[in-house]
Every structure is written in structure tokens, then in C-alpha cells.
Write a structure and sequence with these properties.
Length: 453
């Protein structure tokens, strides 16, 4: 019984080792796919800690102030605009007045000449908008490795006619996020600022109801300050008072070039994507390009009378290697135990070479159902057993077909069994030597290893 227990342990040990190696090898072959990253904590300290280990996407909005061919032909102005646009991964542009669209095309050519070929910029441009002959266009410039644009169109405002320049609706997919996000680019008419900013709530409701998208970022020139939106008017603006909307650019931010100090340009977000900590704290601001590029007021105003506004979004997967899950860690820690058990079993079989890995159970007496165990030497694997019998001394055991060997039933007679079976053992010396590998590794395990390697 003791030997059978050891035999079972040997087979179980090898089975566990093979299963462990197989599972580990399989895990190495599985390729990981980009999935939604784990949300950053809402607490500031944890948010900053997590964000510092992740990729950032810089999103901006810029009113280019009558952007057309004259600005393209002014090298100093063009150089500054290129630097501004290249600063961002995604930037929403407004007040493009060139009817031929050549200004935007030439700008993009210049930008990509100055950019990495591995990460070129792309753009989309809207139809012309406006109630008067002085129409303009929106554009979105972006790196294709950061976002993918699925569709874009102007909001249909024909019934309410709330907007002088209809918002540009852009359906995109951000890197590392498995749901769509809608970008709304807007240039609000100054004298109708209160009405149009409030009406953006209706646009967001339409997006959620029709497109089934909750994650929305609204950005652009809201004209949301100074004389255009008096302080007492804010209470009538739903976009400002509803808790679901987060105004990232505050009223205290100066988004204008020159002596004015007004927070005209804004970024407003809503939806789970922007509420679970992806907006990196302290990154929502106006980019004062005149100070950065050392421009005087006159030269800065030739570029635009607005500063770009921007935010940084944490995207993608962590840059550091993620530790294995608890189940994998447990599997790795158990592997040395399997090896230790296998080593002990192999050592036991080497010390006791006459004990094989196979055992049989037979009826001792046809008149009883009692069973006893009989261990076979390794040489018995090639021997045909004829049945149960006795030798001349009355000892009971198994006989082979030549009646030359008797395997005794009792462990106490094991030494006599070795003497009786010496004839068979001496006639198969070469097989006994070659069976040492068999004793250490069961045959089924050797076949499996051979099929793998």
C-alpha cells in the first residue's frame, strides 16, 4: 500500500508539472490587446500619481481670427501658427474664412513637413456656416494615432435656429477607450452668447438621445465673458447650472491677446469618460503664445486675438509593466513545490530501483471479495503473468508464463521474492538499466514531452 501511494504521488507530480509548464507557455503566446485603461481615482493625489505613468493627449481649441491666404503668405505669422498647432495632439480650429480651403491645405503641408513622418497630422473641415455672406468654417487637426474620426457634420438647427454658426459635430474614438466620444466645435455669436451657450445643452441632449453617446466635449470660442454674458445672466444658462457639465476653463482665465482680460474661450465636458479622473488636474489653461514665443502685442494680434485653450487627457495603458494577477502569482509560487515533490519521488525510485510505477490488484481467493496489492518489479512489465500460485515452500504469489519467477504477496517476504525472481532479473539486465529513465519519468509524461519538444 505504501508503494502504491508513492507511485500515485509520482504520477500526480508529473501531471502538475506538465500542466503548469503548458499553462505558462500558453500565457506567453497570448497577445495582449488594447483595452480600456483602468480609471484614475477621483482623489487628486492618486489621480496625479496614476496620470504621471500614462500617456497624455493634449486637446486644444483655437479661434484663428479670419484665417486665410494672407496669413499663409506672412512667414512670421505662419511660423507661429505652425508652432501652435503642432503643440497639440488634437486641436479644434474656428473662424477659417478662406473660401478656397487652400489656406488650410497649405498649412497642413507645412505642419507635416515639420513633423515626424511616423506621426503625421490629418484634418477634417466642415461646410461653411453663417447667416451672412461672411461665412466661415470649422476644422479639426489631429494625430491619427491618438484619435480616429468616424463621422462629422453640422448640427441641424433649422427648426429652432438658435445658432448663427451651427456647431460642428465630430464623432471620434480616443486611443484606449472602447466607446465613442463626440467633439463639438463652436463659435458663438457675441451678441447672442447667452442664447447660444444655453442651446448647447439641447445639442448635447440630441447627441445622447440620437447617437447614444454620453461622452461629449464642447470647446471653442463661447464669447462667454465680459459684456457678452453679464454675471446676472449665468443663472439662465442650463449648460452652466446643470451638475452634469464640467467647465474646465474658469471665469478667471484670460483667453484674449492684448489689453483685454476676458474668458471668451471655454472647454466644457460631460459623461463618464471625463468624470472618472481622466482630465489631468492643473492642465486646463490658456496657452499664451505671445509670452512663449516672445512676441509683442502687435505681432501677436497678427496671429490672433485669442489664445488657444487646452486640457490634457490621460489615455492609453500604463507605461510601467503591470504585475501579474494574483492567480498567476500563485501559480508561479506553487511551481517550486511541484519540482520538489518530483525530485523526492525520483530520488525514491532511484534508491529503490526494483519498485516500478505500476501496480495491480487481484483477487486472492475466488471465494472472497477481499483484495490485496502486489507490486511488480520493472522487469515484470515485459512478462506475461499466468495467475496466482505457490512455490515449493508454500509461499503464495504471482507466476510468469515460464514459472521462473514468483512475486510474493507480503512485504515481509520481499527479500525472498528478490531471490526467487533473480533468474528473470539477470536475463533482462539491459532492460533494467534502460528502465531508470522510465522510473523517473512515467511513459505518458515522456510521450507528452516528446510531442512538445
Amino acid at each position: 500500500m505504501r508503494h502504491k501511494s508513492w507511485t500515485c504521488l509520482v504520477n500526480i507530480s508529473w501531471l502538475l508539472i506538465i500542466l503548469t509548464i503548458g499553462s505558462n507557455d500558453g500565457a506567453k503566446r497570448v497577445s495582449t490587446t488594447s483595452t480600456r485603461p483602468p480609471p484614475i481615482s477621483d482623489t487628486l493625489s492618486e489621480t496625479m500619481s496614476s496620470s504621471s505613468r500614462r500617456e497624455r493627449m493634449l486637446i486644444g481649441a483655437f479661434n484663428m481670427r479670419k484665417f486665410g491666404l494672407p496669413k499663409i503668405e506672412n512667414e512670421a505669422v505662419l511660423d507661429t501658427i505652425i508652432k501652435i498647432v503642432k503643440r497639440y495632439d488634437v486641436i479644434a480650429l474656428s473662424e477659417i474664412t478662406d473660401r478656397t480651403e487652400q489656406a488650410v491645405q497649405r498649412l497642413m503641408e507645412k505642419i507635416n513637413l515639420a513633423s515626424s513622418k511616423r506621426r503625421p497630422y490629418h484634418y477634417i473641415i466642415s461646410d461653411r456656416v453663417g447667416r451672412t455672406n461672411n461665412k466661415e468654417q470649422y476644422a479639426l487637426v489631429f494625430r491619427s494615432d491618438m484619435i480616429r474620426v468616424k463621422e462629422h457634420f453640422l448640427f441641424n438647427d433649422s427648426k429652432a435656429d438658435s445658432f448663427a454658426r451651427e456647431p460642428h459635430i465630430i464623432r471620434v474614438n480616443f486611443q484606449g477607450y472602447d466607446k465613442d466620444v463626440v467633439v463639438i466645435n463652436i463659435h458663438v455669436k457675441p451678441t447672442d452668447a447667452v442664447i447660444e451657450i444655453d442651446a448647447l445643452t439641447d445639442v448635447q441632449n440630441w447627441v445622447e438621445r440620437t447617437l447614444k453617446i454620453r461622452d461629449v466635449i464642447m470647446l471653442g470660442d463661447f464669447n462667454a465673458d465680459c459684456g457678452y454674458v453679464p454675471k446676472k445672466a449665468w443663472k439662465n444658462i442650463r449648460l452652466r447650472n446643470m451638475e452634469q457639465f464640467n467647465w474646465l476653463i474658469g471665469d478667471e482665465v484670460d483667453t484674449t491677446v492684448g489689453k483685454t482680460n476676458c474668458a471668451y474661450d471655454r472647454i466644457v465636458v460631460t459623461g463618464p469618460y471625463f468624470s472618472d479622473g481622466r482630465v489631468i488636474p492643473h492642465t486646463a489653461k490658456a496657452f499664451q503664445f505671445d509670452n512663449v514665443f516672445d512676441l509683442n502685442e502687435t505681432n501677436a494680434l497678427q496671429v490672433s486675438d485669442h489664445y488657444p485653450v487646452e486640457i490634457s487627457i490621460a489615455i492609453g495603458r500604463p507605461k510601467i509593466r503591470v504585475r501579474a494577477s494574483s492567480s498567476n502569482s500563485h501559480q508561479s509560487s506553487v511551481l517550486p513545490s511541484y519540482l520538489l515533490i518530483a525530485f523526492l519521488m525520483a530520488l525514491f525510485q532511484l534508491v529503490m530501483p526494483d519498485v516500478g510505477v505500476l501496480s495491480i490488484r487481484i483477487n486472492k481467493d475466488n471465494n472472497t471479495s477481499d483484495e490485496e496489492e502486489y507490486l511488480l518489479p520493472d522487469t515484470s512489465r515485459s512478462t506475461n503473468l499466468t495467475g496466482y500460485g505457490e512455490d515449493e515452500s508454500g509461499r503464495r504469489g504471482l507466476r510468469d508464463q515460464n514459472n521462473s519467477s514468483l512475486i510474493l504477496e507480503s512485504d515481509s517476504n520481499s527479500e525472498s521474492a528478490e531471490e526467487v525472481g533473480s533468474t528473470t532479473e539477470s536475463s533482462s539486465t539491459s532492460q533494467t538499466k534502460s528502465s531508470r529513465w522510465t522510473k523517473i519519468v512515467p511513459e505518458w509524461a515522456r510521450k507528452m514531452f516528446k510531442s512538445w519538444f
